[in-house]
Design brief:
The complex is a heterodimer. Chain A has one domain: AhpD-like (Up-down Bundle), CATH 1.20.1290.10. Chain A has 10 helices and no strands. In chain A, α6 crosses α8. Chain B is mostly helical. Chain B has one domain: AhpD-like. In chain B, 69% of the residues lie in helices and 0% in strands. Chain B contains 8 helices and no strands. The longest helix of chain B is centred in the last third of the chain and has 23 residues. The model of chain B has no long low-confidence stretch (mean pLDDT 95). The chains are: A mainly alpha, B mainly alpha. Chains A and B meet through α2, α6 and α8 of A and α1, α5 and α7 of B.
């Protein structure tokens, strides 16, 4: 049960957003630009970074929600998503994405943990300044989202079969206000 | 932020509604203090000085008082409610799962509303993002703390919507 009375039964961050739409608006706008922009990093890469950071923060709702989105973008390759979350250095992904996931993992610990050699490695692997900027901000933003969800003990569905319907909803309509104002998709 | 205006816009709007909007039962000074406290726990020099300076501006105190809060809120003359909210903020900084039902109950018993608890958690979480964003990209920050104090009145008056790190 959430620490506060949110007066709705929406899952995860959606219930918190419905409780306080004034703050939900910039939060969903941030998610939309960071995760749905398709220039530089692909949507799949962005969701993989989000899922990996949420996994490091031990946020069940977020790592599964964004893992499911990455899975949809990767044509259902759930094994790859799991491998990236748990052991990305041995996953079948580009050297560039591995270097960016290393930066994201440092950001998860602290911004001060990112070293010039981490940035240099990402650049050598072909990352642009925008890729590096977006990786740092996606990782930092999930240090917000994860703490928001777990800090208020938001309702977390434990049944993983409920996650794909919400992922398809985001795939089709993005991270707009519909995710916390309309009836939740069930299939 | 100047580098990527598409992301600066929602970040500035989030800061404005969380920290500066007057439709809130927590004062601007109290909200900036939560931001400065979490930034101090995250060891972010830039954010703890920007938001510590804003807190002392709104609370009409000086930086030594803000520094005392950062060291140990429990030893200051802050209200019991604000101490309880700062304790929740510190737990959020450590990880969302460290917030306990007891901490929330205590804040409520001292007069905190659900929305105040919500905003405290979200402010603390937001600074876990802002701090990482600033330090993760190695942003340049002036080392003279007086620089931030001198700019606080203008920042307070202008708000966050046109916020520019270098202004």
């Amino acid at each position: 049960m959430p620490h506060i009375e949110v007066n709705n039964d929406f899952p995860g961050i959606r219930g918190l957003m419905a409780f306080r739409p004034e703050t939900a608006e910039p939060l969903s706008a941030l998610a939309e630009v960071l995760l749905r922009d398709n220039e530089g990093l692909s949507r799949a890469e962005r969701e993989l970074i989000a899922s990996r950071v949420s996994y490091l923060n031990d946020c069940f709702y977020c790592h599964n929600s964004h893992g499911e989105l990455a899975c949809v973008y990767l044509d259902g390759d759930r094994d790859l998503v799991d491998q990236v979350r748990k052991d990305y250095q041995h996953a079948a992904i580009s050297g560039k994405l591995k270097a960016l996931l290393t930066i994201a993992g440092k950001v998860q610990q602290s911004g001060l943990a990112v070293q010039p050699e981490d940035i240099a490695l990402a650049r050598r692997e072909g990352a642009t300044d925008k890729d590096i900027h977006d990786t740092v901000l996606i990782a930092a933003a999930f240090c917000l989202f994860n703490r928001y969800v777990d800090g208020l003990a938001a309702t977390t569905p434990t049944d993983l079969s409920t996650y794909p319907a919400r992922a398809r909803q985001v795939l089709e309509r993005g991270y707009g206000s519909h995710i916390y104002s309309s009836a939740q998709p069930v299939r | 932020m100047a580098y990527r205006p598409e992301t600066a816009k929602p970040l500035n709007e989030l800061a404005e509604v969380l920290l500066r909007d007057d439709n809130n039962t927590l004062s601007r000074g109290e909200r900036e203090l939560i931001g400065a406290y979490v930034s101090s726990l995250n060891d972010c020099f830039f954010c703890q000085n920007v938001h510590g300076s804003l807190a002392q501006h709104y609370l009409e105190c000086d930086m030594s008082y803000i520094d005392a809060v950062k060291v140990n809120p429990g030893m200051t003359n802050l209200s019991g409610k604000l101490k309880a909210l700062l304790s929740i903020a510190a737990s959020v900084q450590g990880g969302g799962r460290s917030v306990t039902a007891d901490q929330v109950e205590k804040a409520r018993a001292l007069g905190a509303t659900d929305r105040e608890i919500h905003d405290t958690v979200l402010i603390a979480a937001a600074f876990c993002m802002f701090n990482r964003y600033v330090d993760g990209l190695g942003t340049w920050a002036p080392q003279d703390r007086q620089f931030y104090v001198d700019r606080a009145p203008r920042r307070a008056a202008e708000g966050y919507l046109d916020y520019d790190l270098h202004k």
